[in-house]
User: Which sequence fits this backbone?
């Protein structure tokens, strides 16, 4: 019934968020407030570490999508706050159709009321809004200047929009102010597109270049952790490309500007690809750009920007051998360049040469602890396809001996199982890790990895033997979680020890971990038939920490 009313169900929320975020979202149901239902969306506020705004888009038969302004949500994830709002909507599913109808009625009523206003009344409303809303006033001023072809005013307005100084309260644009600055930059991009659409493309080209120069100079002094300024700057770059496509500026001049942007010190944002302009540049512009790239390479052979520009131009010409020769001049220590060469050769149908380059990369970087994992995967996958399972195992074995990591162990295990030789390779790998743990040079780290691989293998008996004096709190918790059914007494000792260590830290994450540890301890007491002892222990803990109201709330939600 709920799914029919709102277009999604709990399973959809769990699939979008993942099991962990879904479970955490259950704990925030009481933190949802201000739920507003629109025609195709729902908005609400969730009180967590901070106050977060959430919007769910209800796609009818297409399910649901969500946005939240928490750090995790701004990365594009369907976070626990979205889950909490979604579950709240499902709880109120019977009222959603009525609220949607009310939203439609409000919108219809507003439309009818506005339509009935006179010109003077509407003007009064607009004046009232622009007096209170600075952003709206700027947008309308810009439209008015463009409408009367006042290019001087438009230019001044665009330059002002990308000027970061009003937001740089302490000499730089801080994180809290980046979104506001980004909105202004996006307005500038819209204004540039409007100029092009109004037949002023040549002017838009010049203004866009000035705006991009300003952005390039300012970006280093902006905390753009969320990437919002970078996205807005990319919109300005797109407006520039669009204007160039219409205005068709002089190819040589455009080539010089593009090369100057890519090669300049202030080219951090936006990240222009000269080949996007290939149609506008034409053959003569591309030739001029290559001349500039060659000159830059001659001046600074190790310069990254000049190398990038040359690589893009050579790639556009389709000469694979020239591109390989260019890459080979500067082989990265991680083997990443060997991989790029292999991929280019394989794309050209030269698979044997491609594999040879990748194998050379493994040989050249054999002693490097940190090597590009994609290069190793490239070789192993091609060995497996060719029926060379033993060679694939040898590669994974060599990397494990150098890296000594859980990831390398897992990869070795996968390859060795495919080659039916895992038992012997496992014994050898564990012997290496035990020796690392024993020797002073390996010390704690060797034991740390050893316990991780034993846990990953599910070899709990061995993990218990090795854990003493070597395991960290994360590993002890994982060991207890995996062992509480078979070894409840030992797991209980671990949980109680970790609970004692977890009393001091504060904050939601710390409190949620403490609740998780207590749930594990309760399961152990139940398995041992000593639930009364747990009840007494929990009561004492709650009394001790009763002043931490958020902790008490989390314990209550967890059934503790």
Assistant:
């Amino acid at each position: 019934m709920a799914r029919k009313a709102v277009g999604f169900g709990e399973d959809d929320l769990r699939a979008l968020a993942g099991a962990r975020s879904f479970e955490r979202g259950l704990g925030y149901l009481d933190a949802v407030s201000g739920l507003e239902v629109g025609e195709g969306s729902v908005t609400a506020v969730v009180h967590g570490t901070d106050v977060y705004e959430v919007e769910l888009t209800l796609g009818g038969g297409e399910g649901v999508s969500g946005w939240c302004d928490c750090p995790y949500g701004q990365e594009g994830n369907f976070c626990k706050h979205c889950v909490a709002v979604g579950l709240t909507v499902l709880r109120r599913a019977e009222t959603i159709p009525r609220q949607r109808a009310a939203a439609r009625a409000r919108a219809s009523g507003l439309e009818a009321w506005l339509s009935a206003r006179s010109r003077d009344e509407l003007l009064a409303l607009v004046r009232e809004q622009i007096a209170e809303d600075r952003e709206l006033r700027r947008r309308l001023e810009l439209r008015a200047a463009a409408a009367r072809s006042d290019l001087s005013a438009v230019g001044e307005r665009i330059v002002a929009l990308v000027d970061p100084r009003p937001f740089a309260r302490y000499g730089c644009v801080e994180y809290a102010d980046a979104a506001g600055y980004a909105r202004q930059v996006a307005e500038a991009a819209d204004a540039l597109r409007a100029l092009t659409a109004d037949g002023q493309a040549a002017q838009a080209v010049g203004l866009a270049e000035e705006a991009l120069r300003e952005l390039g100079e300012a970006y280093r002094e902006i905390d753009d952790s969320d990437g919002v300024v970078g996205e807005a700057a990319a919109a300005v770059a797109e407006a520039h490309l669009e204007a160039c496509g219409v205005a068709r500026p002089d190819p040589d001049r455009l080539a010089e500007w593009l090369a100057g942007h890519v090669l300049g010190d202030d080219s951090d944002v936006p990240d222009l690809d000269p080949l996007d302009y290939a149609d506008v540049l034409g053959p003569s512009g591309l030739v001029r750009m290559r001349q500039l790239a060659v000159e830059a390479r001659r001046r600074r052979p190790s310069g990254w920007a000049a190398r990038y520009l040359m690589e893009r131009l050579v790639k556009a010409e389709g000469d694979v051998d020239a591109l390989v020769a260019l890459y080979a001049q500067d082989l990265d220590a991680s083997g990443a360049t060997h991989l790029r060469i292999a991929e280019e050769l394989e794309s050209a149908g030269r698979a044997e040469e491609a594999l040879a380059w990748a194998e050379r990369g493994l040989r050249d970087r054999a002693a490097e602890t940190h090597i590009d994992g994609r290069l190793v995967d490239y070789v192993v996958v091609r060995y497996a396809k060719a029926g060379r399972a033993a060679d694939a195992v040898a590669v994974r074995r060599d990397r494990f001996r150098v890296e000594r990591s859980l990831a390398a162990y897992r990869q070795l295990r996968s390859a060795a199982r495919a080659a039916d030789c895992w038992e012997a390779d496992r014994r050898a790998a564990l012997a290496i890790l035990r020796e690392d743990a024993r020797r002073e040079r390996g010390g704690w780290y060797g034991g740390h990895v050893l316990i991780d691989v034993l846990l990953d293998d599910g070899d709990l008996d061995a993990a218990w033997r090795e854990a003493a004096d070597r395991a960290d709190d994360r590993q002890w918790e994982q060991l207890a979680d995996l062992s509480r059914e078979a070894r409840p007494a030992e797991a209980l000792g671990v949980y109680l020890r970790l609970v004692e260590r977890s009393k001091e830290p504060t904050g939601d994450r710390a409190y949620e971990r403490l609740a998780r540890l207590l749930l594990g301890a309760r399961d152990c007491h139940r398995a041992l038939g000593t639930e009364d002892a747990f009840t007494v222990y929990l009561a004492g803990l709650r009394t001790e920490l009763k002043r931490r109201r958020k902790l008490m709330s989390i314990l209550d939600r967890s059934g503790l």
